[in-house]
Design goal:
The complex is a heterodimer of chains A (about 425) and B (about 425). Chain A has 16 helices and 11 strands. By secondary structure, chain A is α+β, with helices and mostly antiparallel strands. In chain A, the strands form 2 sheets. Chain A has a 6-stranded mixed β-sheet, with helices on both faces. By secondary structure, chain B is an alpha+beta fold. Helices cover about 45% and strands about 20% of the residues of chain B. In chain B, the strands form 2 sheets. Chain B has a 6-stranded mixed β-sheet, with helices on both faces. A 5-stranded mixed β-sheet of chain B has the order 7-11-8-10-9, with helices on both faces. In chain B, α1 packs across α7. Classes of the chains: A alpha+beta (about 425), B alpha+beta (about 425). At the A-B interface, α2, β5, α3, α4 and α10 of A face α2, β5, α4, α5 and α6 of B.
Chain lengths: ~425, ~425
């Protein structure tokens, strides 16, 4: 079954939304539970709490111990994990079809019954801090953190999902438990399941497992829209390393806005097609994109450049990331980048470039559709910031973009006074030799 | 929780002799093909005996540099033309380098298989190593080495390999060092290509919605005429003994927040008869659930690391059996003590029958998931061919799995792991 086929939502009385897709190509089922909570819902002093709650969800319930959770899924050969992002947190299991009930029971149980033990909270505190320290080892993370902080003074998107160390040191068990009880409820969740099952039987099983879980109150939302940026922000980060990195981020609209699709095409033309698939499928290289050709090949000012336009609920960022060529300067790289942006602002792209973007998108869907995990992922993911139609009409919306649309969004959003430029400067040199 | 009993594979659904076509093209290239009529896409993969073990001391990184430049231009197409052909149809093709082989992989919509194979053949057979492009790639490789020098994980592994494999071709990084990359010239690449790239011992795997005859015909058309009389045969690498005693080293990278730690020793090759016992044993040690016994001890109970697991890396020659962890610099020694203690326990007594049952079931259950996509099947067929496991390997998997005992795992563990003879490498801020 193609990723593009529609599946209607089913709602239980407690508000739980269920999306089911039968796919019988392999004896596998992928089950996801999505919660509308992420770093977007965090307040000062509690940055990182959503991600830490995700870690606590592996600590067990009164019915299923942590050990039993791990072993029962692993024993079946299932793949499982969880992710916390800006707008959502999700848990998934992809299992042999005859073992899926383990996952279904586990997820229904931990929606409301996770135990919060003081000792476990403290043990996980050091694990989460260690996860953050691992990321701090990367210059790219340090630059990205500074850039987000400069881009969002008011909105919580200014903080990394992993959270701030000072908050990770001070958040207490009661804070975590309160966050869990506030956001983990059926009316704030979506269950998306794809694979080798009978839809009616699966729906009955999901209903049996979830229908007695009471609805929660509508969770509070942080409503702190970012003010329009008035002028370009520039920042530098210094640290260890040998290589200069650059991030250039433009404020862009949310994924549900009509301009998001022309922006995706713009990104494809400038820096290559976006990878759509979280689980396999792979990507397509960007060697013929305008920025790669000009900055890496013609002018040799950078050794690599990539773009990213994440799909989010609130307006977020289109970011171009580059690694500077050792014989170049950040100013040289920015000058060439600006020339290319000016070029697309001055003249609409050729129709061939748009056709290519459509073909690339078709291919990425075909690759991603091979994975049942991707199929279930997309049903839930799209519900976190828009609707499932966002996926099923994706190709149609991409194909409807005109050269003038692309030129218009380039003119509207890729303005210097709408961007943040971040440069990572290594403050010493010294290479490792034999 | 309701849980059904031991997993059982549906053997007939797994790739096997009935649906895998394995033939030799006219020039000796081995072609493996498995149809997947449900798919709209095709996956290809393969390898040539042109890995980094063929590098000379003063030109370390030559194999990697050469493979990185194959797509920079051919006798008939420029770099931009090659990538224009690929990207305009949403296809991908990449070529990389390991210790023994140069490997390639790609995918495309099914109707574009002819284009993909034609391009593959052109870049493998007809590269011209344009000088300007070579310098561009050199800059990229040197920048990669600068980034490597700041990566605690890469540097810990580099130190580990250098110490563990002292005197063996595996001691060197396939991406070389700054001075060796700077020393490589176009003529070195052309000579390397002439000597090591050719149809001898080359394997090509195709998985997608086709009849075997059409794939064979396409492979013959594009690759079957490739001959290279000067191509040399594969090099045999020597074995390595377990280190005589423990060696510890730390590579300082200032201002880092975390230290990466690698603790391990020589492991089995992929063709060792006890490999599967070692594999299941490794799962108990540091994989199963949330990273096995190591994860339980270092992450879950002590809260010392976000990641802590064991890994078995096995290929043609002597492999590696190691534990990896990322820890706060102050916790390095504490984590090391816990890791050593778990290794000691692991070689001290057999695992429990429950642990064995857990990992046996895990390996059987996850097999269908690994074969879900065309790329997954491609990867499995490449492993089967490279290590001569036989076309019925996947269909025999369950039987092989169930023959493993706690005693065979203990025997495999004792063959390689000795808590008093470990290489301990770390990278991070000063200790």
């Amino acid at each position: 079954m193609s990723l593009l086929e529609t599946t209607p939502s089913i709602f239980l009385e407690n508000g739980l939304e269920i999306k089911l897709k039968e796919i019988h190509s392999a004896p596998l089922i992928s089950s996801w539970v999505w919660y509308r909570v992420g770093s977007r819902d965090e307040i000062p002093g509690k940055h990182g709490i959503s991600h830490w709650v995700e870690h606590m969800q592996f600590k067990g319930t009164e019915k299923i111990s942590s050990d039993e959770m791990e072993k029962s899924v692993s024993r079946s050969g299932g793949a499982w994990n969880a992710f916390t992002y800006l707008d959502w947190t999700t848990y998934y299991e992809t299992m042999p079809a005859d073992k899926i009930d383990i996952a279904l029971e586990l997820e229904a149980d931990r929606m409301v019954n996770t135990t919060y033990d003081e000792k476990e909270v403290e043990s996980e505190r050091t694990v989460v801090i260690s996860e953050r320290q691992g990321r701090e080892n990367s210059p790219g993370f340090l630059l990205s953190e500074a850039l987000h902080s400069a881009a969002f003074r008011i909105h919580p998107y200014g903080h990394e999902v992993i959270g701030d160390k000072v908050d990770l040191e001070s958040i207490q068990k009661n804070d975590l438990h309160r966050h869990y009880k506030t956001y983990y409820s059926p009316n704030n969740a979506v269950v998306s399941i794809a694979g080798d099952f009978d839809k009616e039987k699966m729906l009955k099983r999901i209903s049996d497992l979830y229908q007695d879980i009471p609805s929660g109150n509508d969770p509070p939302r942080v409503n702190r829209p970012e003010n329009p940026q008035r002028g370009e922000h520039r920042l530098t980060v210094e640290g260890p390393g040998e290589t200069v990195l650059g991030d250039v981020a433009y404020h862009t609209p949310s994924a549900s806005e009509p301009d998001f699709f022309p922006l995706l095409i713009l990104d494809s033309i400038l820096s290559g097609p976006q990878g759509l698939n979280m689980f396999g499928g792979g990507g397509i290289s960007n060697k013929t994109s305008r920025l790669y050709k000009r900055m890496v090949e013609d002018k040799e000012v950078v050794v690599d450049i990539h773009g990213g336009l994440p799909a989010t609920i609130d307006p977020y960022l289109y970011t171009l990331k580059f690694i500077l060529h050792p014989n170049s300067t950040a100013d040289d790289a920015l000058m060439i980048l600006d020339e290319e942006i000016q070029h697309i602002q001055d003249a609409p792209p050729h129709m061939d470039e748009l056709k290519r973007a459509v073909k690339q998108t078709q291919a990425l869907f075909a690759y991603g559709g091979e994975s049942i995990t991707n199929q279930a992922f997309w049903m839930g993911f799209s519900k976190m910031f828009a609707s499932y139609e966002w996926v099923t009409k994706y190709l149609e919306n991409i194909a409807a973009v005109t050269p003038d649309d692309v030129q218009r969004v380039a003119q509207q959003y890729l303005q210097q006074n709408n961007r943040i430029v971040g440069i990572y400067h290594p403050h010493k040199k010294g290479n490792y030799n034999q | 929780m309701t849980e059904q009993d031991f997993s059982t594979l549906n053997i007939k659904s797994l790739p096997g002799p009935d649906d895998i076509t394995r033939i030799q093209l006219k020039n000796g290239i081995t072609l493996l093909f498995r149809p997947n009529m449900n798919s709209m896409a095709v996956s290809i993969g393969g390898y040539i005996q042109a890995g980094s073990i063929y590098d000379t001391q003063d030109k370390l990184g030559l194999a990697d540099f050469t493979t990185s430049t194959l797509m920079r231009g051919t006798k008939t197409q420029s770099f931009q033309e090659i990538f224009d052909s690929l990207e305009s149809i949403g296809a991908s093709l990449g070529i990389g380098c390991g210790p023994h082989t140069a490997g390639f992989g790609g995918k495309a919509l099914a109707e574009d298989l002819p284009t993909l194979l034609k391009l593959l053949a052109d870049v493998l057979i007809n590269p011209i190593f344009p000088k300007k492009d070579i310098e561009r790639v050199r800059s990229q490789l040197l920048t990669g080495l600068d980034l490597r020098a700041q990566d605690t994980n890469s540097m810990a592994m580099l130190e580990f390999d250098k110490t563990l494999y002292k005197g063996h071709p595996y001691q060197y990084p396939s991406d070389g060092y700054i001075e060796t990359i700077e020393a490589i010239q176009v003529k070195d690449m052309a000579a390397f290509h002439k000597k090591h790239f050719g149809p001898k011992e080359m394997t090509l795997v195709v998985v997608g919605p086709f009849e075997p005859e059409s794939v064979i015909s396409l492979a013959e058309e594009h690759l079957g005429g490739w001959l290279n009389e000067e191509q040399v045969g594969p090099l045999q690498v020597p074995d390595m003994a377990t280190p005589e005693n423990s060696v510890e080293n730390h590579h300082i990278i200032k201002e880092k927040s975390q230290t990466d730690l690698v603790v391990g020793t020589i492991g089995p090759s992929r063709r060792w008869e006890g490999y599967y016992s070692a594999l299941l044993g490794n799962s108990v040690l540091g994989q199963f659930g949330m990273m096995g016994r190591i994860g339980e001890s270092v992450r879950k109970k002590a809260g010392l690391a976000y990641y802590a697991y064991s890994a078995l890396s096995a290929s043609i020659g002597p492999g590696q059996w190691m534990v990896l962890a990322g820890v706060a610099p102050d916790n390095r020694d504490k984590a090391l003590d816990l890791i050593k203690s778990e290794i000691k326990k692991f070689v001290g007594q057999p695992i429990s029958s429950e642990e064995l049952r857990d990992v046996q079931s895990n390996y059987i259950g996850k097999l269908p998931l690994s074969l879900e996509s065309n790329a997954g099947v491609t990867s499995a067929l490449l492993t089967m061919e490279q290590h001569q496991l036989g076309l019925d390997y996947l269909q025999n998997y369950e039987k092989m799995n169930q023959k493993i005992t706690p005693e065979s795992i203990l025997e495999a563990a004792r063959e390689y792991l000795d808590p008093d003879r470990l290489i301990i490498s770390s990278a991070g801020p000063e200790l």
